[in-house]
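ok so I'm stuck.
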Amino acid sequence: MAAGDSLGHSNTAEHPFTERPGTSRRDSSLLWAPLLAIGAAAFAVEIPFFFLGTPSGHDVEFHLYSWLEVLSQWKHGIFYPRWASLAHFAYGEPRFVFYPPASWTLGALLSVIFPWTLAASIYQWIGLVAAGLSMFVLARRWLDRRDAIFAAALYAANPYHLVIVYWRSAFAELLASCLLPLLLLFVIKAVEEGRRAMVPLGLVLAAAWLTNAPAAVMVHYSMALLLIFFAWKERSPRLVFVGGAAVVLGALLSAFYLLPAIYEQRWINIAQAVSAGSRPADNFLFVVHTNDVDHDNFNHIISGVAVLE
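replied:
not stuck anymore, here's the structure
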């Protein structure tokens, strides 16, 4: 199959909600059906919460305490917090300088609107639904509406998301998962449309920096590899320049977070961010053996999930 056929160029690509030939008017009017199906799948993931409570995963205390900090500082008129005063037995830390703002801002907002006992569950539901919707938009390029809804619901409730929800409580990482389908979608649009895809790509990159720094690094590497591959396949070096411009745009849009985080590294021991247990060498599939039994057990679980997927 030719590259143009496999990518679905702009003259044949369909909008995710475009009615296909033969689709009834009633069917096309149910634009809420994808949201309903994805929302139901996300809700099904959380059904055990009603009987067992919200899971207390690896990072749940970190996130919930961050939301409390943000709420407290908002009450004192500090719109963009920098210092977490309650951390380390009230010695504090510059948490909000280095941790991207999207997750703790959303969590704090939900804590204002909903009861504290529900805020984390609603946050995770929103993260799963956002991931499902982004996959629906991507899948709709190649699949019919029903199959795209199935793909979206499957992505929302995929095994790795279950690990995040029930074991990791990595709320920022969960929120960032909605960016991966969008990244692929806009890379393909860059192949088809050139410079017109630069702004959407830049927005995805900026959102990645403002959501989860490790995910942002992964998103940038993934985009670079995809664009280099398509530039070689299509014999179109301009794709590399489109990607470079998107990187610059994403960095500029997220500069209010990135610049202080980069500058203020001199005041902290940044090496502690990759201390024992967090280093890549401690996290290879199956073969890692450390002095931390819990770490090794979790490594084997997540290795099995990776192989399954």
